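Q: Given only this backbone (135 positions), what sequence would you predict?
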């Protein structure tokens, strides 16, 4: 299963060529990742998602994104769950075009002690629901 985040293209996302700037794609991934964490990893009645930090991210740009009023779809899913880290994959697309693929490694993080921590059982359960093997 994939989490889908609809992301608007803002006028200031564009570069001098009228396309979404490459750095902005990292912001789109972050918005999708935060939306995933808030909607999926934090549920009412449970302890809020402690947090995670990005330790690696890689983006392959496949097609330019011009200014548009229709939102982009940023899909995020999990490709591996470890003891203290997990890996995610992303696709930035619309109905007809795949604009970018990306991957990332996140480490579960205890914000109070400022140290890595194990992925909790509740987090692992959610992450495994969104697991797809890497391609």
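A: Predicted residues:
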């Amino acid at each position: 299963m994939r989490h889908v985040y609809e992301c608007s293209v803002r006028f200031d996302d564009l570069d001098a060529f009228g396309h979404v700037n490459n750095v902005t794609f990292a912001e789109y991934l972050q918005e999708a990742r935060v939306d995933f964490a808030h909607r999926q990893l934090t549920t009412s009645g449970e302890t809020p998602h402690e947090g995670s930090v990005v330790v690696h991210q890689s983006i392959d740009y496949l097609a330019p994104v011009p200014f548009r009023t229709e939102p982009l779809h940023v899909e995020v899913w999990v490709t591996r769950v470890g003891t203290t880290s997990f890996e995610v994959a992303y696709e930035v697309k619309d109905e007809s075009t795949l604009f970018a693929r990306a991957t990332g490694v996140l480490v579960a993080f205890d914000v109070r002690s400022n140290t890595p921590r194990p992925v909790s059982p509740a987090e692992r359960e959610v992450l495994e629901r969104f697991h797809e093997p890497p391609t």
